[in-house]
Each structure stands twice: as structure tokens, then as C-alpha cells.
Amino acid sequence: MLRPAGLWPLCRRPWAARVSAENPGRREITSGVSPRGSTSLRALNIFDRDLKRKQKNWAARQPEPTKFDYLKEEVGSRIADRVYDIPRAFPLALDLGCGRGYIAQYLNKETIGKLFQVDIAENALKNSLETEIPTVSVLADEEFLPFRENTFDLVVSSLSLHWVNDLPRALEQIHYILKPDGVFIGAMFGGDTLYELRCSLQLAETEREGGFSPHISPFTAVNDLGHLLGRAGFNTLTVDTDEIQVNYPGMFELMEDLQGMGESNCSWNRKALLHRDTMLAAAAVYREMYRNEDGSVPATYQIYYMIGWKYHESQARPAERGSATVSFGELGKINNLMPQGKKSQ
């Protein structure tokens, strides 16, 4: 438990300048940010990306940004653990939606040769955490990646893709920039994230104002994630879910931390203002329904972790249909089918 503190055509690329992976250095900064207000023509325009950029820039400018980094650092460390589980080195890697470098701080130069860090918030890039890996900072939108095909050996992303309007295209672009046999390892918030806060606000607003508006952004369902990865071209997929529960003194402290993380709602249909009486009622509902024995209130963050590989002929492939020599009906006789020497071992 933590403590609080549309198909993207491969023959075309976004208008933003393409970023080369040559000439490694300790830290370089370049820009490939998309036009303001841009979004895919096929995408539902759910999130205000300009507002999200401002929210993340504001959070990165705070006097003590590390006060609010506890959740992103925890998930970043878990992404790094998954990188270390793969017994190989990655000469060129990309951290998509890096923030202040929550994954990079847990990686080492023996595993990663050079790391590109991409984010829409320039202040997050300027105030990124120290790492021993040679790093290039790129100001760019996750929806408009300015990289060439078959560039990276590894792409990682932690708690960023849930703010993307066109998640299918974002995954397709990640697949596009990966080299064959390259791997994508990501994490994003799941549908049950902050269900306590969502329920409390809805009950209070319904009682005080006769109806409710969305105050928590929509999230992807876990059963859709594997399908989206497969449709983007990834194979050998792994999708798993985890929950992190953080205890806060009250609802207002939780909302303050969400703002400090840059995770305030940026949906276009959000309600601009909640009445003071509604907020007080929501805090009371939250405490009444979910209070812990020590008087604190819990907030649940559901995290989806995903791993997908870009196809290469050297990868193991499933056997051809109909090539099995034993049927499922004979599994009960497995001991009789095994050679005598193996049974005695």
C-alpha cells in the first residue's frame, strides 16, 4: 500500500519533423509536437489535449513536484521490472508520455543504450529526474509520433495513454516505430480507477442538484485492450491487471494530489464547477461509505499492464492447425502415453 504525499497509413507520417536516432548524447531536446487541437479524423474527440498539456505543465512547475510522484514512481518501477524480465539489452528505447522520467530512473545503461523521452509537457521534460542512460527529450504528442519506421528496440509507456483520443492509432504508431522483434511494455489506468470518488460525487450531485455530470474521465476496459493490441499488429500478447490502494485523510486531499499529478479531468463534457454544498456532501458520502478503521479513506487505482511484440521470423509460432498428435480426450491417459523411462523419473 502506498502512502499519499483510424488506421494510420504507413506511407504517410504526421506533419511534425521526424526525429533521427543518430548522434547519441547525454541530453538533447528537440520538438515534434502536433498542432494545437489536432486529433485523428476518425477518433472521437473525448479529451481536450491542450488542457491536458496545461495541467501537466502546471503540475511540473510546482515547488515540490516529488510530493505527488508516489503513484507514478511505483508504476514506473513495475514497468522497469518487466523490462528486466526480458533477457536482452535494448540499444535504442522510447519512453512515451514519460512525464518527469518515472521509468527511466529505474533503468540502467547495461540494459538501455540510449533513451528517447517523449511528452506533451515541456516543463516535465525540463524537470526530468536524473538517469545514467544517455537521454534525448522530445516534445511531441502521443497521437502524432515523429519517428521513422523500425526505429526502436523497445517502447515503454506508463500512465499516459488513457488521455489519448485515438488509442487504436496510438498503438498502431507504436507498432510502426518498433523494429521487428521489438517489444512494447505499457501501463494505463483501468475502468475501476477511483470508483470510490466517482460514486461519491454522483450520489452527492444527484441528491443536491437533481442529476450528475462526469467528473472522472472514461477508461478502457481490459477485455478491449488485447483486441486493440492485436489489431495494431502486435503478437505474443500479455495483458494483466493490478490494483494499488492509497489511503488519504479525506476526499479533498485526494483531489489535491490528483491535481498535483496532472491527472485532473480534461474531458470536453466535464462540468466546469461543482457547488460548495455538493463537494461537502460528496466528502461526507465518501467518508461514510469507504472509511477505514483509522479514519482515512481509500482510493483505488486499477492498472492495466500490457506487453506486445512486433513480428519477426525468429519468434516462436503456434503449430499448424491439425498437427497435434494427441487429442484432448486422451489427456486422462497421459501416464500411459509417456515413455516408461520418463514416468520413473
TrEMBL record:
Q: Where in the cell is it found?
A: Mitochondrion
Q: GO:BP terms for this protein? A: methylation; mitochondrial respiratory chain complex I assembly
Positions the record marks as coiled coil are none
Which cellular component terms (GO) are annotated to the entry?
mitochondrion
Record keywords: Transferase included? yes
Tell me where on the tree of life, at the top rank, the source sits. Eukaryota
Q: Which parts of the sequence belong to the Methyltransferase type domain?
A: 94-185
Q: List the GO molecular function terms.
A: oxidoreductase activity; S-adenosylmethionine-dependent methyltransferase activity
Q: Which keywords does UniProt give here?
A: Methyltransferase, Mitochondrion, Oxidoreductase, Transferase, Transit peptide
| Chief location category | mitochondrion
On assembly, the entry states: Interacts with NDUFAF8, leading to stabilize NDUFAF5. Interacts with NDUFS7. Interacts with PYURF (via TRM112 domain); the interaction is direct and stabilizes NDUFAF5 protein.
Q: Which PANTHER family match?
A: ARGININE-HYDROXYLASE NDUFAF5, MITOCHONDRIAL
- Which family is it part of? Belongs to the methyltransferase superfamily.
What is the protein name given in its UniProt record? Arginine-hydroxylase NDUFAF5, mitochondrial
Where does this protein come from, organism-wise?
Answer: Theropithecus gelada (Gelada baboon)
